[in-house]
Amino acid sequence: MSAVATAALRTGAPETEQLVDTYRDLAAPVVERIADADFTTRWRAMADLGVLRLASPDATAPGPVTRSLAMIEGIGLAGIDPGLCYALASQIFGMQFPLRDALGADVWRAVADVQQGRELLCHALTERGGGSDPFSMQTRARRGGNGFVLDGAKTFITAAPVADRAIVFARTSEGRSPFALSAFLFPLDLPGVRRGETFTKTALPTVPMGELLFEGARLPESALLGEEGSGLAVMASTTAWERSVILGYALGPMQLLLARTVDWARDRDHFGRRMGASHQVAGRVSDMALALHRSRVQLYAMAARLDAGTPARQLAAEAALTKISVSEDYVRMTEHATALSGVRAFLPGFDLAADLAGPMAALTYAGPNDLLRVGVARQLGLPVEN
What is the dihedral angle through the alpha carbons of 255, 72, 79, 160, rounded to the nearest 10 degrees? Predict the structure, then answer.
């Protein structure tokens, strides 16, 4: 893809674009070296580049959220595995920023060492019987001794098989009251905590996913995040953060997909002419560029709002709309590339092989898009029922 075309899609502030390029260049020599390494080794290699380090809240431009988003985009452009890129974005935006900026300095100090990459966090909310309804939660934490006793199970947790600490949501009172749930943060080597099944995935298979089981696990009082009964508020903060910018992990793969498709269409001979001379091909490629441009503008706009100090919970509707839009654009881009690549898209040995499952998964995590649409409609004033 030409430099002119690339510049047309790179419309951010110069300092932001420079940071994207810096991390692309830092990560590029690491890609091949760690390609066959295990997940933890690859995670630490990215941490050694500084990807997990959050800039100070009063850092000069770009702001801390924009800076982290640019880092994630940069390593994605270098060709780092999308699963690893997703896992990094999930910890940074779904856990590190909320812990630092929404849950207080004391909580953040207790886990700030995760920025060095030697410890991983995971976010344990979903249960097998609960799906997207937090009030159906069966995991319970009851008062006992000088803290809580935790019983239950969580499933479909990104990085659970290798994580060192977890944010876990549990019921601390009965009913569907907004104050029935609480959130806890604790190390996973406590007695009574076990790792359950590890799942084999077709989407983002390189990032492990599994279960956590709690059988009379004793948690100290200090494990409680916020006040008892504030779990729903904690959940709202972490999910709003995640939905706002987690799809930043897709920006690098989307740009690489567009560049690969443009090069293929420009150079391939098709019916006695270059494939790229076809108006139909041109239309698909232009739609791919539009999806990428729209996604990039939306994600960096959300990062700028967060950098300006807007609380993530006040951005719930915009976060949902951004997540819906970018995930669906990612799917559309992949569909266009697959249509243009033909059968080569389905042959793993070809450079044009397409990952269809990864983009489709983006429609589901951080909240299924159908449910997010319901939430947006409610905020617009519709009396939508569950």
Answer: -130
